[in-house]
Known about the structure:
The protein is mainly alpha-helical. The chain is built from six helices and two strands; from the N terminus they run αββααααα.
Amino acid sequence: MSTSDLAAPRTSRRVGLVLAACYVATVLLANYAITTFGAVPVGFGLVAPAGVYFAGLAFTLRDLTQDHLGKRAVLAAIVIGTLLSALISPQFALASAAAFLLSELADFAVYTPLRKRRWLTAVVLSNIAGFIVDSLIFLWLAFNSLAFLPGQLVGKAWMTAAAVLVLALLRRRRGHVGPTVSSGGEPSAVGRQG
């Protein structure tokens, strides 16, 4: 075993902790954006609550956090994000917390079984599942209306497309980007595995 093999788990853990922090930060940023900017254009003449872009990014960050830190750590991050959602946006507390918890669990449920076979496909499908659940629950609980639904779906789809493009480019450049955990779902002892 080389020195680089021994350093790989520490590097993956550090990357995972940064990803987890970014993931949780999307909660803060989404709630800040919606309370500060209200509705924003997302294209095709549609508008959505301004937090849509950060909420859309959260799903990919959740997937990457799971790849670097494992299932238990990402479930803990989901709980932290849910609590932050409830605490930082009193006017949207129930809507934000419920939407975050249920959509992230939907993302987790789709991503986990698919991630080892077709990683980018798993990212795309889990993001779609997550952002549909998030949009339906948040809009209904926050506004008692689904009027923003088309804009929410488009805005989150933009973020998924951007994230997948970046991941595909990284994969092409590095030769591999994806799960770094064992088949049991926890961080592997030696570096990245495909």
